[in-house]
């Protein structure tokens, strides 16, 4: 199964890639949403794991564009935010934007794996 | 027959008189109802009293029960008296020996048919005044209100002894009733006038705008506050004239609220803009309440108005500060949690990759960088706390600009590289020395670099340049990023300010970097400035800090010499700047320096802890360089300690003089660093090292 991880923090990208590859996933990384959209055409990942709070094209924008352009891709959002920001709740916003799961940073590996199971469950059967 | 006719005539005359009196009384009653001027009515009553009683004088008094013991009577109106007599009787006390005094004490009518035979008045000043005025007889009748209370007196007086008839007195009682009514009415009106007057004085004194309207919605009065605010005279405001100052956009709403509430007789509160005398519209809150008289009849409205503009602005500022604080807390959560994600991941990797050195090394690298990032964040937060307490202080030293810039780039490198920005650094060829807190100035430049990296789309260009001119150094960090709208430039150094706040274009960071940078630069005696051509056109931040004054010390020469041994040096100069710059240079060379600013302090310091070399200014107050050197030479501990003269006098005669005084070296001011080095080499002889031009000790002391 192929994953695309989007985060503006290089260490987050690297550590996610290492962890997920060891768990048997094929992992590509992108530093921002614009790059992720570009890459997806070549990569055709089944699951997108994206940070919410990023420069340029942020996570919410990335999610809605993925839903439009690649509707088959399942989406996990991750964020360190969550308090009221700009009078919007980011966790809630991520849900509204259509993420299939939302993780709050930092998260245990097991939490990440459960989220992956959850979003990929029916897809794997298919 | 005759007598019968006489009787008829008399009866007819009496009847005529009664008719005339009745007519008179009726006239008085009618006038009481129709006449408004109270003085006219008093006069009318006096006239009626004289006619009814066939007297020569009459007077009428009003009781002021609260005055004196038992109250006092005040003359309201009179007829026939001279002004002097009127003045005498203007106030009559209850203990007065007059008929009115007696009537006041007893509450009933008093008649003195012949004042000279009246026991009451015998030998009193009152009697003398009566007689002087030409009064021989007097009667006083108390005036009782309808409620029964005593309100005043009515008196009539005759030039001849006179006993008034029962009939006259009966008629007088009717007149007295009317006089009592009049006084009652007058008292009520006076109370009302006083109350009104009190209200107006109060209303004019308060810092509120007050208006009054009548039952037809027309405004009938405005206080001084309103007149001052609008700058209009009363007559322009009356009726609905006030409405012309209401903002045209608010007028319809304002009038419809006013009319609707008015018709419902309900209180209202509304806000609208009202034009001030200077033409500026100010937000006001206007509170109106309906007025009712004692009988519950609606009489109009009373309203008060307060200028809200300042309060609104303050509220807006508070709301803005609160919003920024909320955003700051949300950002703080994000900024603290984000580095924790890779840290948690790295820990998982360490757990499961026991025997995979490469993965473990990668995990450690991640941990190291992210912990560093978190530490920096916490440090920033603590700095903010220190700055808001005003307890931040600098640890200044002589530092090189290129080191500062290199340190800042090192710190910001991850952010710059993550975004694939190109960084260009252009510093002056020659080294620039600053007297600054190395860590703080590095932090300032790093904050600017972080901002440039954050607010520039990937693959952008960042330039760091520095120019020294006019005694100050200008360091600029320029990017070709999202830029800053002109309207935001002023607020950009405020705490918690962030570009893109209010949009989703936020790019991380706490919004404290620039606020911190400004505070730190200002602590250095410098300034910071932001410039941008506008949104999308890049930004430039320029830090200006003063350059240190180090006369005759070339920066290049001041580089530390690792080979040189650290020396304990005592420097004495009453010119504090000269002493300190020399001290800085010596410290930079790696020596331990003790500074003194006069001869006495230098001597004390030297004797307390003998240095390895002494640099003495010659012209110092209290104890000059010669005296200090002479005293040190007396101490055996200084036998082998070089003493150097710092002086502006370079003639051979001067050199001879210092040599004779026991100085080992004569160095001309301003101090040239090669001369300083030569002087320091004098110590080397003492170390027993072969090198060094130091003369043998014997020769040095030969002059003594």
Structure description:
The complex is a heterodimer of chains A (126) and B (704). Chain A has 126 residues and is α/β, with parallel strands linked by helices. Helices cover 48% and strands 23% of the residues of chain A. Chain A contains five helices and seven strands; from the N terminus they run E-H-E-H-E-H-E-E-E-H-E-H. Chain A has helices spanning 10-22, 33-43, 59-69, 90-97, 109-125; strands at 2-6, 26-30, 47-51, 74-79, 84-85, 88-89, 101-104. In chain A, the strands form two sheets. Chain A has a five-stranded parallel sheet with strand order 2-1-3-4-7, with helices on both faces. In chain A, strands 5-6 form a two-stranded antiparallel ribbon. In chain A, a hairpin with a 2-residue loop joins strand 5 (84-85) and strand 6 (88-89). In chain A, helix 2 runs parallel beside helix 3. The longest helix of chain A has 17 residues, at 109-125. Chain A is globular. Chain B is an alpha+beta fold. Helix content of chain B is 46%, strand content 21%. In chain B, the strands form five sheets. Chain B has a six-stranded antiparallel sheet with strand order 3-2-1-6-5-4, with helices on both faces. In chain B, strand 21 (613-617), helix 17 and strand 22 form a beta-alpha-beta unit. Chain B is elongated and about 165 Å long.
């Amino acid at each position: 199964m192929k994953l695309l991880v989007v985060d503006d923090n290089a260490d987050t990208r690297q550590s996610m890639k290492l962890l997920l590859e060891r768990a048997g996933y094929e992992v590509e990384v992108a530093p921002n949403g614009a790059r992720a959209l570009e890459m997806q055409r070549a990569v055709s990942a089944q699951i997108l794991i994206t940070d919410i709070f990023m420069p340029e094209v942020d996570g919410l924008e990335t999610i809605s564009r993925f839903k439009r352009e690649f509707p088959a891709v399942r989406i996990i959002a991750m964020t360190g935010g969550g308090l009221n920001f700009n009078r919007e709740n980011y966790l809630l916003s991520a849900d509204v934007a259509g993420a299939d799961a939302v993780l709050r940073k930092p998260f245990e590996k097991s939490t990440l794996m459960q989220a992956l199971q959850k979003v990929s469950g029916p897809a794997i059967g298919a | 027959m005759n007598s019968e006719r006489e009787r008829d005539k008399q009866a007819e005359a009496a009847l005529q008189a009664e008719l005339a009196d009745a007519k008179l009384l009726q006239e008085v009653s009618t006038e009481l109802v129709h006449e408004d001027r109270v003085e006219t009515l008093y006069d009318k009553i006096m006239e009626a009293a004289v006619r009814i009683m066939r007297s020569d004088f009459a007077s009428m008094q009003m009781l002021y029960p609260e005055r004196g013991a038992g109250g006092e009577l005040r003359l309201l109106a009179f007829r026939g008296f001279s002004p002097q007599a009127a003045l005498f009787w203007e106030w009559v006390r209850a203990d007065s020996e007059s008929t009115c005094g007696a009537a006041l004490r007893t509450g009933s009518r008093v008649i003195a048919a012949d004042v000279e035979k009246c026991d009451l008045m015998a030998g009193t000043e009152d009697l003398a005044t009566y007689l002087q005025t030409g009064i021989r007889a007097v009667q006083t009748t108390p005036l009782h209100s309808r409620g029964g209370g005593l309100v005043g007196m009515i008196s009539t007086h005759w030039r001849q002894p006179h006993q008034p008839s029962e009939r006259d007195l009966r008629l007088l009682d009717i007149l007295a009733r009317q006089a009592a009514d009049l006084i009652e009415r007058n008292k009520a009106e006076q109370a009302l006038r006083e109350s009104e007057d009190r209200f107006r004085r109060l209303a004019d004194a308060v810092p509120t705008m007050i208006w009054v309207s009548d039952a037809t919605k027309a405004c009938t009065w405005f206080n001084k506050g309103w007149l001052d605010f609008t700058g209009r005279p009363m007559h322009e405001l009356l009726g609905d004239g006030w409405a012309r100052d209401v903002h045209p956009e608010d007028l319809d709403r304002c009038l419809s609220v006013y009319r609707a509430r008015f018709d419902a007789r309900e209180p209202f509160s509304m806000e609208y803009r009202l034009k001030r005398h200077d033409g500026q519209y100010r937000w006001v809150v206007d509170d109106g309440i309906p007025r009712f008289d004692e009988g519950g009849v609606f009489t109009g409205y009373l309203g008060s108005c307060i200028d809200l503009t300042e309060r609104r602005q303050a509220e807006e500022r508070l709301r803005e500060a609160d919003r920024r604080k909320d955003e700051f807390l949300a950002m703080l959560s994000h900024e603290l949690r984000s580095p924790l994600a890779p840290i948690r991941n790295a820990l998982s990797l360490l757990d499961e990759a026991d025997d995979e050195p490469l993965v473990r090394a990668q995990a450690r690298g991640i941990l190291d960088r992210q912990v560093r990032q978190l530490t920096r964040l916490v440090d920033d937060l603590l700095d903010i706390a220190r700055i808001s307490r005003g307890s931040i202080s600098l640890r200044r030293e002589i530092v090189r600009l290129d080191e500062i810039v290199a340190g800042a780039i090192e710190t910001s490198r991850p952010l710059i590289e993550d975004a694939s920005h190109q960084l260009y650094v252009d510093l002056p060829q020659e080294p620039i020395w600053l007297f600054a807190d190395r860590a703080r100035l590095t932090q300032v430049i790093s904050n600017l670099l972080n901002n440039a990296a954050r607010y520039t789309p990937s693959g952008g260009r960042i330039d760091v340049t520095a120019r020294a001119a006019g005694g100050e150094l200008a360091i600029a960090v320029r990017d070709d990023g999202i830029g800053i709208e002109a309207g935001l430039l002023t607020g950009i150094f405020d705490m918690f300010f962030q570009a893109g706040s209010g949009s989703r274009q936020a790019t991380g960071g706490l919004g404290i970097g620039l606020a911190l940078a400004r505070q730190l630069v200002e602590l250095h005696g410098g300034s910071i400035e932001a410039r941008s051509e506008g949104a999308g056109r890049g930004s430039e931040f320029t830090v200006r800090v003063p350059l240190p004054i180090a006369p005759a010390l070339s920066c290049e020469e001041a580089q530390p010499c690792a080979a040189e041994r650290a020396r304990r040096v005592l420097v004495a100069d009453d010119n504090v700047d000269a002493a300190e710059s020399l001290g800085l240079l010596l410290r930079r060379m790696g020596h331990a320096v003790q500074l003194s600013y006069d001869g006495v302090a230098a001597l004390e310091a030297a004797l307390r802890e003998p240095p390895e070399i002494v640099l003495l200014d010659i012209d110092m107050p209290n104890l000059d360089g010669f005296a200090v050197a002479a005293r040190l030479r007396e101490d055996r501990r200084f036998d082998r300690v070089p003493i150097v003269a710092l002086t502006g006098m370079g003639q051979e005669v001067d050199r001879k003089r210092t040599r004779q005084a026991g100085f080992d070296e004569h160095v001309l001011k301003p101090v040239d660093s090669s001369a300083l080095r030569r002087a320091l080499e004098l110590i080397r002889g003492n170390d027993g090292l072969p090198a060094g031009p130091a003369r043998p000790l014997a020769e040095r002391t030969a002059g003594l």
